[in-house]
User: Fold these one by one.
Assistant:
Number 1:
Amino acid sequence: MPDEASYILDHLDTLKVAHVTRQYETSKGFWEKYGKEGYGKALQDAEYHFRFLTESLKAEDPSIFYHYSSWLKSLFAGLSFPPDTIHHTLKVLAEVLKEHLPAKLLEVPLSYVTGALDFIQQSPLEVQSFLIGDNPLDTIARSYLQYLLEGEKNKAFALIEKALEQGYTWKEIYLLVFQRTQQEIGRLWQLNLISVAQEHFCTAATQHIMAYLYPRLFRATRKNRKDKRLVIACAGKELHELGARMVADFFELEGWDTYYIGANTPAGTIVQIVQKQKPDILGLSVTLPFYLDEIRTIIPMIRASNSNIKIIVGGYPFKISPNLWIAMGADGYGKDAEHAIEIVNTLIGTVP
């Protein structure tokens, strides 16, 4: 771990208090109106700022912090904060770094923060909807999301059944309805247009629908090939598992035997399962950069016990930092379930 990241994490409590204190002192009374609860949330937010910064430092790539800052810009807009809130937040962060970091450790983290100030000038205030378009699947995705937001899980399920009866493939439903809907749910939460409870319900409903359809899916379309095996897991305490579930299902459709571990699995457990299952491929997924350290731990452990296995990774951090998978020691990165199959076919020489 870079010395800069270690120092920030070792002094995180001091730094986040300093950030909130400075932010309150220089905001002309804006934050005080949120009371004690608001102060607690401000401390939590400040911790996130520093943690995302340290993840960028570990990866030696400012993109992670840049995109976090852009996300924060949209979040603040959704909360109706003044337009300069994000700029003020980052400037306070820079001031705290200057005050608290030793001079020899300041240059790189400070450059990431000042770079983020430039980056957000070009980033949109509001992320464009993931469900725009006028083809039939766009319409289905919008209707599916609307049913979920209204709590109508049965209607959402009936809509998917009808789409399958009309001839749309499982892969189309997964990628163009389920995946895009999840992205749109995240966008709506970011803009403060839906609650955390709605976000959780929508995700749980889609997981339930996928599980209910699972037996029918593979009776109808699964390729008859069982010579390859995949183990797939979400790294560490990562709870965002829907993407990994989709990847496992796509590999099942291609005829692979899959061993899906799911969310919140310790590194040691993943290693034990790999040793027992002896897969050709291990897939690791992470959505929040905080859990990248788990992948940094898992991959060397796997390599030490199985030098022949191929390891692919996926998830948001790898999307915004294109070379991160290489730095992690993985063999490839899949941007979605379909792309993961293409990468694996290239790695092990199978025929799609």
Number 2:
Amino acid sequence: MTIKELQDLKAQALEINDTIYELKKAENRTMTEKEEAIVAMNNQKMKEYDLELDTEFRKAGTSHYVGPLIKIGKEEDQFSLIKSIRAQLNHKELPGLTRDLSIVGRQQFMESGNNATGEIVIPNYEQRAEVNVQGSATEGKEILALEKKAILPPLLPRLVFSQAGVTYMPGLVGNVSIPSYAGTAVAWKDEVEASGDGGGAFSEVTFAPKRLTAFVNVSKTFLAQDGVGAESLLLSNIADAVAHKLEATILGGATLSSKFPSGIGYKLNNANNSGKAVLKTTGITYAAMVGLETAVDVANALDGNLAYITNGVARGILKIKDKGTSNDTGDFIMSEDNKMNGYPVLVTNSITSGYGASPADGNMVCFGNWRDLCIAQWGGYDITVDPYTAAKTNQIVIVINCYFDAKGLRGVTGSASTLDEYALSFAALSIA
């Protein structure tokens, strides 16, 4: 079975046990013999699933174990960020479950080579398997439920890159170098002619943690809520803030920096951008769009997860632009099923209308093999509660710090004038 299948089976066993515990608690009774047998059987199954998961994770080169063993004690509540923030604002001790989770979160940061300075540190459960817990069914049941899903909504599905099929590497430790191979040279020779050195050139793409910080303003009235909906909304807003900033940066036009990843749109705004000139509305042609595919093809990167990514404005332009030079074919560049030349077109408004040789020239359209875009993450989410900055509007500011990097796996590094970290696998133009 796959890791996902094993995790699903374990989650199902946990859910059955949770239902029995809740029913017993609601009816204020002890478990029946049948219920005890079911719980015991599920506990045994989960042990077996853990052994299989350990084996599969080792095969994949990662660890099933993510932190120290935790004994939670008799904690009655599920994790609540709202209650944890209220405790901080009232200068009270954090709930026990929050403290225990923060221990795991800080351990993740330490292992990654970074430090978490906030009082609340949420571990990243997208990266590996579950937290191992010591204790009986009444000592640790609540944190066991966290094995079913991450505390923060998963990051990747919130990015357009999820649809595109990018490579996501969470749970990293220190700087990471991924080898890139230029290929092997093969040639025809005479019967006794000496063979040449056929070894291709190796290079490395290095990823280093860069601090991404985002913030969410929350009213004190909202923090007074105890409902599941309010908790879910707050966690969702935090995940959205991180995802939006990450997506806008990767698809942006920023140049090389030690503070953040460079953007795929950088070359469109660079004076040295030969061969990728800005196209205005009147200059858009079907041939120009196919030219993006050709640029990737001649670099031998036309395989994997191929797609276009653009924004809503460009999609509207492409849907009404005829393929023919005389606008007389009735066949538009972008079809009604949101495809161009057979490839899907994905849309995100994280792409601005500021790409090109002049300020605010146009909207980027990028084509490429998105499997060659790698997003790396170190540790989880460090949360600081700031009650002062927005106090006059009766709000508190939740500041989130996390560490990411992103590059093309076949990119070319260099100074600002030669940088193209998304070379070979991606090509882009700007339309207005």
Number 3:
Amino acid sequence: MIRIEIVAPMTGRVVQLADVPDPVFSERMLGDGLAIDPDEGVGVAPVSGTLVVFHSAGHAFAVEEATRRIGVLVHVGLDTVGLGGRGFERLAEEGAAVAAGQSVVRFDLAVIAEAGLSALSPIILPQLDPSFAIEMTTETHVRAGQDVILTVETSQRPG
């Protein structure tokens, strides 16, 4: 059996994906997961693995878990791509090995709010094999790099 724990990539309030006011996320077009409304402006790696995607605007990154069984997409805010990187500082580079809880991006919540955008941040498991079962946290507030927000399990053998 494979069991992968995904930690909160940021500190804040947990929001169900269905309650995210963007149909791309709420209708799970990219995959299942949840969202966090952040209290602090730091995003960390949700799993240990490789930073396989880091959008040029700094608002989204994906980590492929070390066993290469799953990927985790973190999208900081809604429509924040329009900021063109303003308010975002990269703390890691695409292709780098990262540890769960390692800082990846710093973001300025005031810049996001001043632009009239939401900082609500979806955490998505894109292209997850249907053999995996997802268990989501029941916590309402989580701490970056500390609290497990998603557990993914399958009875498939590693390999």
Number 4:
Amino acid sequence: MKWTPAADNAVDMTINPDFSQVESDVAQITANQRFAVFFPEKRPFFLEGFDLFDTPLQIAYTRTITSPQWGARSTGKFLGSAYTVLMTADRGGGVTVIPGPVSSFFAPQDFKSLDTIARIRHDVGRSFVGAVFTDREIRGGGYNRVAGPDVQWWPAASDSINAEALVSSTRNPNRPDLSPAWDGAHSTSYAFHTSWDRHQERYDAGAFFEDIGKTFRADLGFVPQNGYRNAGGYYGLRFYTDNKSLSLVRPVVLADRQTDANGNEIYRRGSAGIYLQGIANLGMGLTWHPSERYRVGDRLLSESFAEWFIQIDPSRRIPHVALSGFNGQRIDFANGRAGTGGTVGLTTTVRPLDKLAFDANVSREWLDVSGATLYSASVDRLKATYSVSAKSLVRIIGQYVSTDRNPSLYTAATSAHDAGFQGSVLYSYKINWQTVLYAGYGDDRVLTLANDFAKFDRSLFLKVSYAIQR
């Protein structure tokens, strides 16, 4: 239920919500990732007013609320300040990200909790001051609380300074049967971020510093790394031309260095790149990373590679095409060695008819070590949308994710092949902003050891919402 008692205030409430109509996530390849990956929030109940949480450190991330039993949110203005307060009772499930300086891992979130996320911001011209508070109270014992102020200051029209300081207090649930991370321990820590950016007509520059304490946790946010200090900066030039085909050339250099609490280097990067902008929203970029260094175990390993992308909006029937990737040396983090590999990704939209659109996402990633392929992974996703009328549409999505590995090249036991398929069909009929009918079907399958696709989840749903307008 949504209630708008005034033009600048809204109250949302829900009981036992289901979000089957929400479009599934575009899968990401995680075969060689050190830290948890980010997926955007798509559930409509959690989206309103959430732009207020656009702060340097992502302390609020509602995807951590996995199965809300009920929820209530108030968003609006109070004494000239914008605010939002969200409370939910989460039945649990899913996982909690346990951060670390060189990697993160997951702990099962098999417990109920009461979650609160609050934010207030007061604008002063282009600048603002604000504060954020999150609190997860775990039934049976345990909590994670984070609070602190932030500020954005524009001392000049071209200069902005951002800063955020946070304190966390955490007591782990005493559930070692679920995970070693749930040991009942208590910790208090801090997080600090500051940055400066300058944007002039002919150049732009910036610098930043970040210090995240060894035990800092934000269980209702997305902070997959802690116990580090990071400092860096960038400088870029802008050259404008009179050529319509190529209007902007922007070379840029960037460097940053990350250390742990003892001053040991975790990560070091220096890169140089060039960005081009032209007709039909043309964008091209090439960045050379000559020697990035990462700490893997007790060693520092290096890699050199090129990163690139190109995008263009060529025509009405093909409104967007983007291609990106990297090639060169890459570190095998799972086994602590260097190799060679690359990625390539394609996203495009095609409209063969005015009422029909196809959105495709294709990704490939591979890594070779010791003269053989360690793994290759792929994502193939196609979404078709047909607008039956101005009020109704049909959406069909199919996504296939696959990873092939060479177990003999891994130091720990691993599967040779993993794969899964997600499919969904949705029909929606929308009269206005909240008077909507949804009907749909979803089918998720995983590959078994017998090389069959077994049913993992299946759903058939019908939803109706109605707006009472006066």
